[in-house]
Structures are given as structure tokens and as C-alpha cells.
């Protein structure tokens, strides 16, 4: 390695800030092991107890009807399409109750941009969930859905966020970020808002006391520089708001959908991005890897490259499963994966507070009812088979 790269790595490992240009240099030129060691040094300093967290939640898709027609999306159906569906509030509540029985602390309500779903729909939905299950955290929707409801209802971003927060929204999911820079975003989601608008919604929400996560979808033809630019755009907002709790990159699954044949992000690219993200985001507390898209081995390796959280055991996910992710697991597997990496597994809540630390293997979960449920849920409204999710967005 050149002295330059050594110096950048050392500064970042010591907690110093690196520039986007330096991050790009690390991403493209640093040797993998020193890169991972530097990122892991940051992780150790932040979390010296060696704990790696996970979450139990349920992702409930309320509709697959969408007017935004992203080119990468195998989940949506255009309005009036015969395979379009929407779930009733009663059905969504039933699934929330089922999730709570299985130990979920959070629900992620996600869906398409239905032409009739304005802020009133979300107020009613969140209000109903909170009325029925006050303790269930609603970590749901994203800036794209918020912008959609502003258009349908003719309200400002601020009014929309205030109203859905008052109705029960606790936290905004980082979904819909895809790639934030203009060129790759327009290539895969030409009808979606710009990356700047996505961040603007987050900034407004953070200012109103609604925190969020931030995601990134790698592997749809973006360049290395565009990947790092995505990180820079998020870090700049985080400098002003501090509202992003975690960064969650994941890899695009091309099977079954429109971008099939595009170059996918390799496991190595993913791990390098994970490590660079840990070094670059000196202002974001948590780094979550998406072991369900990349596979367990890569997920476990990510724990040695700066990751402190493996996201969720989810009970249902349609958007991702429709796109072909097939890495299934269950609670037992996830805990084993963390423990066999030499870390201490802990169930967390949405705010990363530890709910249950598995200090020894004797503390590991053995709930057969949960595990059998994980392997038996059918996808409602279509899909190619249940698969666990990619991201706790
Ligand atoms: S990714 Fe979301 S916004 Fe885009 S088409 Fe699919 S459901 Fe619609």
C-alpha cells in the first residue's frame, strides 16, 4: 500500500474524518485486510463489549399497487393490473398481532405508491395499529411514500410528517434510497424523486423529531465513485441533523426482474463498501449488514469489517422475495452466526437498546414455535415463495 493509504486508514481508525476522495481511494485501492482491520478498530472503539445486535420485526406490505414503476422492482403492479392487491386494515392488524405473539417489537409497513393513498390513508393505518398495539414500534414507509402522499393530499412535507407522526409513526425506514446520485437513480427509478428530495424529506422529519435509518442498494450499474457519493450525500445531512441511526447497504437481487443481466455487486465489493462506510460515517452510530442478500458467510465476514448489527429476523417480506433473495434463516441461525464470529448476540429494539443479551450459549433462543413459524409463512397476494428480508430499512 502507498503511504497515503496507510495514513488515511490510520486516521480513520483513530476516529478522524476522511474526505469522500479519500474514501474512494480506500474503496478502490486499499488492501482488503488492512481496510477491514481499520473498520473493525472503529467498531471496537464504539462497541467494546463485543455485542452484535439483531431485531425481531415483521414487514407487512399493505399494497403492491404502484404508479412509480421502478425498473428494478419485481414487486409492484400498475393500477388496475389483475395481480394488484391491497390488504384491509383488519388484515394488517391481524398480522401485527401475530408478530407480537412471536416476539416482534417493531413493524415495518411498506408498499407501493397507490394512486389513492394520501396522508389520510396513513393516518388511519398508523392510528389503527397504535390503538390496537400501543407498544408496537412503527418503523415504516420512507421519503418516497411521504412525497407521494403530499401529492395525493396536496399537503407539504412538514404537514404530512407531523400528521403521520401524530397518528403513530415512530421512525422512518431508510427505504427508497436506492442510489442517491442523479445518474444511477434516473437509470433505475426515473419516476422516483431525486436523491436530494429524498434527503430533504429525511431532514424535515429529523427536524420534527422523527429519526430514521439510511440504506443503499448496490449493484445496478453504478460506478465506484457514485457509491461513495451516495455516502457523502447522507453524511452531509447527518452533520446537520444527527437523525440517521444506522446505515444499511444491501445488494440488488436481479433474478426475476427488469434489470436482469446487469452487473451485480460482488461479495468483495460489498465487504469493501461496508468497511469504507464504517470509516467514512464518523457521525452515524450503527452499521448494519444485509446478510440475507449476500449470504450467511458474507454476513459473518462483515462482522469483522465494522458491522455491529445484523438487522432483523423478519416474518414476512414481499418486495425482496419477489426479486429473488433466497437466503433463508431463522432466529437460531442468526444467533449462531453472531456467536461463531466470536461476538455476543443481543436482541435490540428500534432504538438499539438491548432487550436480551445472550451472554452464553445457554441464553440462546430455542423457541420452536417461532422457528417453525419462520419456515411456514406463505406470501399473500403472490410472490415466488417466502424469503427472509434483505434489510431492516
Ligand atoms: S420500488 Fe417501491 S416505488 Fe418503486 S416500483 Fe417498487 S413499490 Fe413502487
Topology:
Blueprint: H1 3-13, H2 20-29, H3 32-46, E1 51-61, H4 89-101, E2 106-110, H5 119-132, E3 137-140, H6 143-153, H7 157-167, E4 171-172, H8 182-188, H9 195-207, E5 212-218, H10 224-241, E6 244-251, H11 267-280, E7 286-287, H12 291-294, H13 296-302, E8 309-314, H14 319-322, H15 331-339, E9 344-348, E10 354-357, H16 368-374
Parallel strand pairs: 1-2, 1-8, 1-9, 2-3, 3-4, 5-6, 6-7
Antiparallel strand pairs: 9-10
Helix pairs in contact: 1-3, 2-10, 2-11, 3-11, 4-5, 5-7, 6-7, 6-9, 9-10
Which structural traits does this protein have?
disordered C terminus; 393 residues; TIM Barrel; alpha/beta; three-stranded parallel sheet; binds iron/sulfur cluster
DSSP strand (E) fraction? 5-15%
> What value does the Rg take, in angstroms?
20 Å
Largest sheet descriptor: 7 strands, mixed
SSE arrangement, N to C: HHHEHEHEHHEHHEHEHEHHEHHEEH
Distance between the termini: 35 Å
The total beta strand count reads: 10
- The figure for the number of domains is 1
- What is the fold-level CATH name, i.e. the topology? TIM Barrel
Weakly predicted, low-confidence segments: 324-328, 369-393
Morphology: globular
Mind telling me the CATH class?
A: Alpha Beta
Helix % is 40-55%
Question: Which assembly state applies to the chains in this document?
Answer: single chain
- Under the CATH scheme, which architecture would be assigned? Alpha-Beta Barrel
SS-based structural class? alpha/beta
Amino acid at each position: 500500500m502507498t503511504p497515503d493509504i496507510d495514513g488515511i486508514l490510520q486516521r480513520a481508525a483513530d476516529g478522524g474524518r476522511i474526505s469522500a476522495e479519500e474514501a474512494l481511494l480506500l474503496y478502490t485501492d486499499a488492501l482488503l485486510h488492512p481496510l477491514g482491520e481499520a473498520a473493525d478498530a472503529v467498531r471496537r472503539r464504539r462497541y467494546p463489549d463485543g455485542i452484535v445486535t439483531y431485531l425481531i420485526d415483521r414487514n407487512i406490505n399493505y399494497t403492491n399497487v404502484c404508479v412509480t414503476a421502478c425498473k428494478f422492482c419485481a414487486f409492484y403492479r400498475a393500477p388496475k393490473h389483475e395481480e394488484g392487491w391491497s390488504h384491509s386494515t383488519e388484515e394488517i392488524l391481524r398480522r401485527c398481532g401475530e408478530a407480537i405473539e412471536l416476539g416482534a417489537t417493531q413493524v415495518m409497513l411498506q408498499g407501493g405508491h397507490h394512486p389513492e393513498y394520501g396522508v389520510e390513508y396513513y393516518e388511519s393505518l398508523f392510528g389503527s395499529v397504535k390503538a390496537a398495539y400501543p407498544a408496537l414500534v412503527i418503523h415504516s414507509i420512507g421519503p418516497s411514500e411521504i412525497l407521494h402522499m403530499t401529492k395525493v393530499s396536496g399537503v407539504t412535507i412538514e404537514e404530512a410528517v407531523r400528521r403521520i407522526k401524530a397518528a403513530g409513526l415512530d421512525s422512518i425506514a431508510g427505504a427508497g434510497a436506492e442510489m442517491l446520485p442523479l445518474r444511477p437513480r434516473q437509470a433505475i427509478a426515473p419516476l422516483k424523486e431525486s436523491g436530494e428530495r429524498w434527503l430533504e424529506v429525511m431532514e424535515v422529519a429529523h427536524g420534527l423529531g422523527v429519526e430514521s435509518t439510511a440504506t443503499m442498494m448496490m449493484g445496478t450499474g453504478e460506478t465506484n465513485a457514485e457509491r461513495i457519493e451516495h455516502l457523502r450525500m447522507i453524511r452531509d445531512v447527518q452533520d446537520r441533523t444527527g437523525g440517521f441511526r444506522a446505515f444499511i447497504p444491501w445488494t440488488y437481487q436481479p433474478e426475476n426482474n427488469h434489470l436482469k443481466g446487469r452487473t451485480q455487486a460482488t461479495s468483495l465489493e460489498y465487504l469493501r463498501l461496508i468497511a469504507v462506510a464504517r470509516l467514512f460515517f464518523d457521525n452515524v452510530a450503527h452499521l448494519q449488514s444485509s446478510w440475507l442478500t449476500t449470504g450467511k458467510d458474507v454476513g459473518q465476514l462483515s462482522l469483522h469489517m465494522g458491522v455491529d448489527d445484523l438487522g432483523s429476523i423478519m416474518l414476512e417480506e414481499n418486495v425482496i422475495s419477489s426479486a429473488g433473495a433466497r437466503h433463508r434463516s431463522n432466529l437460531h441461525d442468526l444467533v449462531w452466526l453472531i456467536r461463531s464470529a466470536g461476538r455476543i448476540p443481543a436482541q435490540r429494539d428500534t432504538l438499539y437498546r438491548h432487550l436480551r443479551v445472550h451472554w452464553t450459549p445457554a441464553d440462546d433462543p430455542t423457541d420452536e414455535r417461532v422457528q417453525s413459524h419462520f419456515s411456514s409463512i406463505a406470501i399473500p397476494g403472490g410472490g415466488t415463495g417466502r424469503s427472509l428480508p434483505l434489510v431492516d430499512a
